[in-house]
């Protein structure tokens, strides 16, 4: 009886013949396992790479004409590059600084010294020669065919700037000494486009809001090797604020002296260099 029970127990412990069969992996399954392993390795490698240091090194190594520096860089796979406390400058007296910027640029074009893409700036400052201004919520789109190490008068392409607000530190040329307080040197809802074509440029009609006037601007000009000495030939029209006399009596008197009238529009030419423009009636 005991022998019979032992035989039955051994039979129960013996696994079925099917369970003893060797598990075989097909070629397709092997390929899938290898692919998953390699893909996982690459993903984790990409996530752990020090992108900020690598991009900083690439910018310093391959782009000598423009210096780009920042305190922090954020890079998402499907999102734009975000620079915190950034500093962009070149050898031609151009500087752009700010607390945060988003770059949507063609990196390969940039490494090839071509600017094509968008720059979004929350709060920034621009200095070009003796021109200084502050930006708020600015979107700058640049599409240039040439290398940016070429002289300015050889550039071909376009740049479009849309900003919620621009404030000049001081005005230029004849406007520099006008009695205008800082809060009235603000220009809002700016949409300015400049097209360049190897020595010449054009500005399609643009409308700008200011506490004193509604302004429209349109013109063209010739590019020099630097922006400050480039020649402008434009037409500006001013539509005064109905309360101009109350807001700024001095500018109200100056406006009437020029031949302007309340409720109307006064237009004049702006000619001269970018750094020293002059009004021509």
Averaging pLDDT over every residue, what do you get?
77
Measured by DSSP, the beta-strand proportion falls in 35-45%
N- and C-termini, Cα separation: 127 Å
Number of beta-strand segments = 13
**Which structural class do the helices and strands define?**
alpha+beta
Describe this structure in words.
The protein has 6 helices and 13 strands. The protein has 281 residues and is α+β, with helices and mostly antiparallel strands. Strands 1, 2, 3, 4, 5, 6, 7, 8, 9, 10, 11, 12 and 13 form a 13-stranded antiparallel beta sheet that branches. The model has no long low-confidence stretch (mean pLDDT 77).
List the helices and strands and how they pair.
Elements (H helix, E strand, L loop, with lengths): L1 H12 L13 H22 L2 H12 L3 E4 L2 E3 L6 E10 L3 E12 L1 H5 L4 E13 L2 E14 L11 E13 L17 E12 L2 E10 L3 E10 L8 E10 L3 H4 L1 H9 L8 E8 L3 E4 L1
Features:
281 residues; alpha+beta; 13-stranded antiparallel beta sheet; 6 helices; 13 strands; 44% strand
Structure in a nutshell:
By secondary structure, the chain is an alpha+beta fold.
């Amino acid at each position: 009886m005991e022998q019979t029970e032992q035989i039955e127990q051994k039979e129960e412990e013996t696994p079925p013949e099917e369970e003893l069969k060797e598990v075989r992996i097909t070629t397709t399954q092997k390929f899938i396992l290898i692919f998953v392993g390699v893909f996982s390795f690459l993903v984790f490698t990409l996530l752990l790479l020090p992108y900020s240091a690598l991009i900083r090194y690439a910018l310093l190594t391959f782009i000598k004409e423009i210096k780009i520096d920042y305190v922090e860089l954020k890079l998402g796979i499907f999102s734009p590059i975000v620079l915190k406390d950034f500093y962009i400058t070149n050898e031609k007296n151009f500087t752009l600084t700010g607390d945060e910027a988003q770059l949507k640029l063609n990196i390969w074009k940039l490494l090839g010294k071509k600017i094509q893409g968008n720059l979004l700036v929350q709060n920034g400052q621009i200095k070009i020669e003796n021109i200084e201004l502050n930006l708020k919520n600015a979107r700058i789109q640049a599409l240039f065919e040439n290398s940016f190490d070429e002289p300015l008068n050889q550039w071909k392409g376009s740049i479009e700037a849309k900003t919620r607000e621009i404030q000049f530190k001081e005005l230029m040329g004849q406007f520099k000494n006008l009695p205008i307080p800082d809060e009235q040197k603000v220009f809002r809802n700016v949409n300015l486009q400049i097209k360049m074509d190897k020595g010449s440029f054009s500005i399609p009609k643009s409308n700008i809001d200011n506490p004193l006037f509604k302004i429209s601007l349109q013109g063209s000009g010739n590019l020099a090797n630097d922006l400050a000495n480039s020649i402008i030939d434009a037409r500006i029209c001013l539509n005064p604020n109905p309360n101009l006399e109350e807001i700024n009596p001095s500018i109200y008197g100056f406006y009437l002296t020029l031949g302007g009238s309340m409720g109307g529009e006064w237009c004049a030419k702006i000619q001269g260099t970018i750094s020293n423009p002059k009004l021509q009636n």
